[in-house]
């Protein structure tokens, strides 16, 4: 029997390795940009076409590579950072200038142009599927330019599993934001399909956060800084009132490397105890500087997970530092007695000042019912020359002023009396005969023949709006309420790309939105059903709810949009309703296809029969 175990060809081995390192275009972007940073570049350009499927190009002004290094960087296990095994535990840089290049070259068409400062000519290398097509001298700028074209062109199965362009572009923006936050001193630009998405000059960390996420973040940040013998902590956390319902804007960096760590994330959220609801997550950008020998960064192929020698101490330091920063900048509630006394001192008048009480003068002989001749003249400054008051005649036929209003009220009652409602095959009273009560501005109590029913007003309105929005998405029949003053809304890059993806369906719901410059839209109208909500708040909550539902429920796009908009636009618990509003809510609820099922799957209506009440009181 012949031998069956054979060595894999290098091209196949590289394709297998690429599956661990390059999962999507965003993975290639991360590796290439980190290589540019380690090359000492202070200016990095990222050019994307077709969400990275057609082109990913990174241009830097770093140190460049020699002819030999340019060829060697595409070999497996080629690196400029490691010479022995102990070097693995002393790494402070990002890329290895070759660790991922072999994987990328195995699944794409790569063109590399590079030149060192001391060289007159650069090198140009073209590789397709791990095979070197050409290598020749060329004229090139100082630094390196790498173009990755047609990613996964030779592995169509993996290319078919890529998501739509907006989804892949959001992943690229996420990776770009992480690298840009870790290196605020470097100038970054990002272009997608010939449009500039980001233009980030070298600056401080706070300004880099503002440039990435919007000018409104300038007032949301609380600085955190702590230095101990174990770690050095620095960065910013967001104020509690600006917390979101998704985890998107939470960044941990260990030695300038982005990581995901649920344990350390719990330390930050614990510091916000009693300041945030359970379903909200704070914004934070925190940097941990630690001795590389006390961590292991080679736990995960993408280096996003780290092991620590003393996790509990790091947890305690982060938690106490964030909590102290929140208290130091008066975010947590506090009572300053000195401040209270100073305020009281400002209000209390000085003892030597004489207080003059106001005086009121009036004419005791004035009679408003007297005739003009009998009425004494007043000394009012505005009526001094008028010769007194003129007696207004009593209007005639005043008792007929409300006839029109009475007729409209009777007409509305006649319309309502034509409708009937059924609950569990039991007749409910007509609207004109209903005795409705609102309990704690939360539930609506309505008597029925067999007892009474309790309706959750918020869940009921969510169900009504949800089915209405679903129908509008199917028929593109949303009605827009135009704004008197259109509002401009600036979003971060990821949310803006998500909005562009959802724009046709959002317009079908009744939004009148158009793009207006970089990461900015103008809202000229919102759905008519939601005219009591601000444009900026409504749009942000819609995107937040969509991302939250997408991460938890895995809903399709239209169902997700309808559900998110219904929850944001529904009347909230604690809203006082009039009898007419309660009647209208009940009528619309029982016109729904599923009136007794809330969006979270719980019941909207609870029915209590007379037998249940009698049994309870008899016992």
UniProtKB/TrEMBL annotation:
Gene Ontology cellular component list: mismatch repair complex
GO MF entries: ATP binding; ATP hydrolysis activity; ATP-dependent DNA damage sensor activity; mismatched DNA binding
UniProt-listed NCBIfam families: mutl
Family: Belongs to the DNA mismatch repair MutL/HexB family.
CDD domains: HATPase_MutL-MLH-PMS-like, MutL_Trans
Gene3D superfamilies named among the record's database cross-references: 3.30.230.10, Histidine kinase-like ATPase, C-terminal domain, MutL, C-terminal domain, dimerisation subdomain, MutL, C-terminal domain, regulatory subdomain
InterPro entries cross-referenced by the UniProt entry: DNA_mismatch_repair_MutL, DNA_mismatch_S5_2-like, HATPase_C_sf, MutL/Mlh/PMS, MutL/Mlh/Pms-like, MutL_C, MutL_C_dimsub, MutL_C_regsub
Entry protein name: DNA mismatch repair protein MutL
Function: This protein is involved in the repair of mismatches in DNA. It is required for dam-dependent methyl-directed DNA mismatch repair. May act as a 'molecular matchmaker', a protein that promotes the formation of a stable complex between two or more DNA-binding proteins in an ATP-dependent manner without itself being part of a final effector complex.
DNA mismatch repair protein S5 domain segment(s): 209-327
UniProt KW DNA repair keyword: yes
Taxonomic superkingdom: Bacteria
UniProt keyword GTP-binding present: no
Domain MutL C-terminal dimerisation positions: 435-577
Organism taxonomic ancestry: Bacteria, Pseudomonadati, Bacteroidota, Sphingobacteriia, Sphingobacteriales
Keywords: DNA damage, DNA repair
A biological-process GO annotation: mismatch repair
């Amino acid at each position: 029997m012949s031998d069956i175990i054979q060595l894999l060809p290098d091209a196949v081995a590289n394709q297998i390795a690429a599956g661990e390192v390059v999962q999507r275009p965003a993975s290639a972007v991360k590796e290439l940009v980190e290589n540019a940073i380690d090359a000492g570049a202070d200016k990095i350009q990222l050019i994307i076409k077709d969400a990275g499927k057609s082109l990913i190009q990174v241009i830097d002004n770093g140190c460049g590579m020699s002819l030999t290094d340019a060829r060697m960087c595409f070999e497996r296990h080629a690196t400029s950072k490691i010479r022995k095994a102990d070097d693995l535990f002393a790494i402070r840089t990002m890329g290895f200038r070759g660790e991922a290049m072999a994987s990328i070259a195995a699944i794409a068409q790569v063109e590399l142009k590079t030149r060192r400062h001391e060289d007159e000519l650069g090198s140009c290398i073209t590789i397709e599927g791990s095979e070197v097509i050409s290598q020749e001298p060329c004229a090139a700028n100082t630094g390196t330019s790498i173009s990755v074209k047609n990613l996964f062109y030779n592995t169509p199965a993996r290319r078919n599993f890529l998501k739509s362009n907006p989804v892949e572009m959001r992943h690229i923006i996420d990776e770009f934001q992480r690298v840009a936050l870790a290196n605020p001193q470097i100038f970054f630009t990002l272009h997608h399909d010939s449009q500039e998405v980001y233009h980030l000059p070298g600056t401080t960390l706070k300004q880099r956060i503002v440039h990435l996420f919007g000018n409104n973040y300038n007032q949301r940040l609380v600085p955190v800084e702590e230095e101990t013998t174990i770690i050095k902590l620095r960065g910013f956390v967001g104020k509690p009132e600006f917390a979101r319902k998704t985890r998107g804007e939470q960044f941990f960096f260990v030695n300038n490397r982005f990581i995901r760590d649920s344990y350390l994330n719990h330390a930050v959220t614990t510091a916000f105890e009693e300041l945030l609801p359970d379903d909200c997550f704070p914004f934070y950008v925190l940097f941990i500087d630690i001795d590389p020998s006390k961590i292991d960064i080679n736990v995960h192929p993408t280096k996003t997970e780290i092991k620590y020698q003393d996790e509990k101490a790091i947890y305690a330091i982060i938690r106490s530092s964030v909590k102290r920063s929140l208290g130091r900048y008066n975010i947590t509630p506090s009572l300053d007695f000195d401040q209270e006394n100073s305020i009281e001192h400002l209000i209390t008048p000085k003892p030597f000042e004489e207080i003059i009480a106001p005086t009121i003068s009036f004419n005791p002989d004035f009679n408003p019912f007297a005739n003009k001749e009998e009425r004494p003249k007043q000394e009012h400054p505005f009526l001094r020359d008028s010769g007194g008051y003129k007696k207004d005649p009593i209007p005639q036929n005043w008792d007929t002023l409300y006839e029109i209003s009475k007729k409209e009220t009777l007409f509305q009652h006649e319309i309502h009396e034509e409708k009937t409602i059924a609950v569990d095959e039991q007749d409910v009273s007509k609207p004109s005969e209903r005795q409705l009560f609102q309990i704690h501005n939360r539930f609506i109590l309505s008597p029925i023949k067999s007892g009474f029913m309790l309706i959750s007003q918020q869940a009921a309105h969510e169900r009504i709006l949800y089915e209405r929005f679903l129908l509008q998405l199917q028929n593109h029949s949303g009605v827009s309420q135009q704004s008197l003053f259109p509002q401009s809304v600036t979003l971060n890059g990821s949310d803006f790309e998500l909005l562009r993806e959802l724009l046709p369906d959002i317009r079908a719901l009744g939004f009148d939105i158009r793009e207006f410059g970089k990461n900015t839209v103008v809202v000229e109208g919102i759905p008519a059903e939601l005219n009591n909500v601000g444009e900026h708040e409504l749009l942000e909550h819609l995107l937040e709810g969509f991302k939250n539902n997408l991460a938890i429920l895995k809903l399709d796009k239209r169902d997700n949009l309808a559900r998110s908009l219904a929850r944001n636009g529904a009347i909230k618990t604690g809203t006082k309703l009039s009898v007419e509003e309660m009647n209208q809510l009940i009528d619309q609820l029982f016109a729904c296809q599923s009136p007794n099922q809330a969006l979270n799957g719980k019941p909207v209506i609870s029915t209590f029969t007379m037998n249940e009440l009698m049994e309870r009181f008899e016992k």
